[in-house]
Design goal:
This protein is mainly α. Helices cover 43% and strands 6% of the residues.
Length: 412
């Protein structure tokens, strides 16, 4: 007999009611056969506690939902019954899930139909993906392409440990089985070296900026905004999420502020809902003036100005989708790739094909940490510690190799 298809449990945060206002809980119809109502109630309460950030909520929902699905459908147990060895079995399951648990594209768990939320039959707990280069060559992902990264495995341990600690605090469980796993090393690979910071080269950077400036000159109605977005990412180390409106904040022009010394700062709500002020350079200020001139605004923002920082091209209001900006910047990469190929820089062009938009932030930080005090870069970038900033300080690979070429194996 075939296993029943795996189905989602919890909807997006915008559609999820506050469980702390509920007194009577009932399982979704398609999960009532399992009867583990307490699991459902406290999983709901746990993930809802992270409603302040949709990104954080999505991570915690994913990990807890997967555990419940496996525990109920595969193990046949309540999550309250799971032991250390069960969690180990679960991690192994996540590393190599069955094909019918793997999707080949990211889709929403639920979708609107006739005014109600219905399950999306294409949704799966795990998703196979391929590289940008492979996708560019027309390859389509298959379930056999699924691999679980080390970061994803760490996420399992981190989130589920927090989940069981929550259950203990609520007097629902007496033990955290995740903490009992002493040999996580068999799942997690310890690297001798830290992963290198992924960035584009200075040559690629110059080509990207030149390409986008040309796009803005030729199609200002579309790409003046593109150029401003690029300059924000490069000039202020911003993350894409810090450019769009979400439940945390709506970035506006008034977030550019001048202090008593007439220095300009950009105030942003960043990762972890932490606020920070970012130094605005003279060139960034020029980029702001250019964009505002195109929008027929005053050269510099007024105090308290509520004009969205990045406006929609069609309609009014701020951009709310990071995907839209990623797609826009990918177009810039694609056009830059074409230009570099035309100029005979095929090797550099091919390297650019694997780059992501987030590499722009890494690139800007890597360059600035060479010439600015580390603590200034740390604060502008919003790093939680100097250790994070120090990852961007690297010896030049060519110099390193040059000093090692003359090492002798004899006559020591």
């Amino acid at each position: 007999m075939d296993n029943p298809p795996v189905k989602p449990i919890f909807d997006n945060i915008d559609y999820l009611e506050n469980p702390f206002h509920h007194h009577d809980f009932s399982l979704p119809v398609y999960f009532r056969q399992y009867g583990f109502l307490t699991d459902y109630e406290f999983a709901w309460k746990f993930i809802y506690s992270y409603n302040g950030s949709s990104a954080t909520y999505n991570v915690y929902r994913r990990e807890v939902e997967r555990l419940i699905q496996w525990s109920w459908m595969i193990s046949g147990k309540s999550v309250l019954e799971l032991k250390r060895e069960d969690i180990e079995d679960y991690v192994n399951f996540c590393i190599s899930p069955p094909d019918d648990w793997i999707g080949i594209k990211n889709v929403a768990r639920f979708k609107n139909k006739n005014g109600t939320r219905e399950i999306n039959p294409d949704w799966r707990p795990f998703v196979a993906s391929i590289s940008k280069v492979e996708a560019g060559k027309g390859k389509k992902p298959k379930t056999s392409d699924f691999t679980m990264s080390q970061a994803s495995i760490r996420s399992i341990f981190s989130v589920l440990s927090s989940f069981y600690n929550f259950l203990i605090q609520e007097n629902i469980s007496e033990v955290n089985p995740v903490l009992l796993i002493r040999q996580k090393s068999k799942f997690l690979v310890k690297k001798q070296q830290k992963a290198p910071v992924r960035r584009i080269s200075n040559l690629q950077w110059d080509y990207v900026v030149e390409t986008v400036e040309k796009m803005a000159d030729e199609e200002p109605e579309t790409h003046e905004r593109t150029l401003f977005i690029l300059k924000c990412l490069l000039g202020m180390y911003l993350r894409i999420s810090e450019l769009v409106a979400d439940e945390r904040s709506i970035p506006v022009m008034g977030d550019f502020r001048r202090d008593n010394d007439k220095n300009w700062w950009f105030h942003v709500i960043g990762k972890g809902n932490k606020s920070r002020s970012v130094t605005v350079s003279d060139e960034m200020l020029d980029a702001l003036k250019r964009y505002r001139g195109y929008l027929d605004l005053s050269p510099l923002p007024l105090a308290g100005e509520r004009t969205p920082l990045v406006t929609k091209l069609l309609g009014k209001g701020p951009v709310t989708s990071t995907r839209q900006i990623r797609t826009l910047l990918q177009l810039c990469y694609d056009k830059t790739y074409q230009k570099m190929m035309e100029d005979g820089l095929s090797d550099d062009a091919e390297e650019l094909r694997v780059a992501t938009v987030h590499w722009l932030r890494h690139t800007a930080i890597s360059e600035d940490v060479k010439i600015r005090p580390r603590e200034h870069v740390r604060d502008d970038a919003g790093h939680g510690s100097m250790e994070t900033t120090d990852r961007y300080i690297e010896s030049d690979a060519r110099e390193r190799h040059a000093t090692g070429r003359k090492k002798k194996l004899s006559e020591l």
